[in-house]
Structures are given as C-alpha cells and as structure tokens.
Amino acid sequence: MSHPLPDDVTPAGRSRAATWVVRVVVGLAALVTVALVVAVVGYVVLVNRWADAYDVSPEAPPAVTGSTDPTPEPENQGLDSSNEAYRERRGTPASDAEAALSVPAVEAALAPLVTGDPLRHDEVVAALTGAGFETFGVTPGTTPSGDPATSFGVGVSVPGGCVYGGVTPEGVTLEAGGPIADGGCLEMPTH
C-alpha cells in the first residue's frame, strides 16, 4: 500500500520550498545570461557604428594645412599621451577644408609682426583684432618662469573650425582643423 505524500513534498522527493528556490535560481541565471548576451551584442554594435562614423572614405579630400615655416610637433610618449585626449582636434574633412580657406587671412594679419624682433602679446592681439577676427586666443604674455614671452601660440575661430599655430620673430606657422576636444581652438599650455 502506498503512503500519500505530505503536502510540502513533491513527487520527486523535494520540498515545495526547495523546488521553488531552484526554479527562481534557474530563472535568474537564465535572465542574467540573456542580459549579458544582449549587453555584449549591443556593445559590439555600438563600437562598430562609432568606428564607422569616424572612418574617412578614400574619396575624401586630404587634410589641408597652410604654413610659412613648418615646425614638426613632438610626439607624445608613454603614459603622458593618455592624458592628452582633450588636445585632440575634432573635425571632418569638409569642415577642415572650409577652415583652411581662412589660413591666408590669418597669416596676412600676423605676417607684418615677423620682423626678427621679439613680439609682444598686445601686438598679436591688435593684429588679429585689426584684421576683423572676433573670437581668438593668444598664449599668455609671460613664460611659465615669469619672463616676457617673445613668440605666441594663436587659435582663431573661423567658419568650419579653427586656424591655429604660432607666430615668432622669425615666421608664422598655421594649420586648419576642427576645435580641440574641450571646445576651443588654442591648446592650453602643458601642465
């Protein structure tokens, strides 16, 4: 003769509470697995779309730069380069090309200052203001050691982006491109 099972035991010999706990744990594990798969697939799709958005097609015009005195820029090295992301320029080939159209006007404003004599901050500001530029930046009139600066970095906001570079007693060096990641045209002095 068979004995009836108590109300809290299943035919498999487990308590109803244990069966319920197993079902909840299995359900949560399945839910976490599905969420993890969705997160990984979403991340891959997002990264691919982001990468595609910044790819330059072979038909895109080359970057346009203008210069009267080319000076190579030093490369960032080691861990220091990871802290320089705010200096990266943002732009597109089309906007960079539009900004490059303003290089001659900025160069024409600064070229009269190139006399071989040390420059002054107020001369650079006056030259850019006199040429009709309203939004621009010029590096400080003193060096980090407190001495008067004799050459200056400049960044001028123009249609399409920025014209940026420097003016020294010996020449003007300018390039065109988008603003830097923090939104300005002129990089802040190194820290």
TrEMBL record:
It comes from the Bacteria. Pfam families: DUF6993 (PF22504). InterPro entries: DUF6993. Keywords: Membrane, Transmembrane, Transmembrane helix. The chain crosses the membrane at residues 20-46. Residues 117-186 form the DUF6993 domain. Residues 57-97 are annotated as: Disordered. This is DUF6993 domain-containing protein. It comes from Oerskovia rustica.
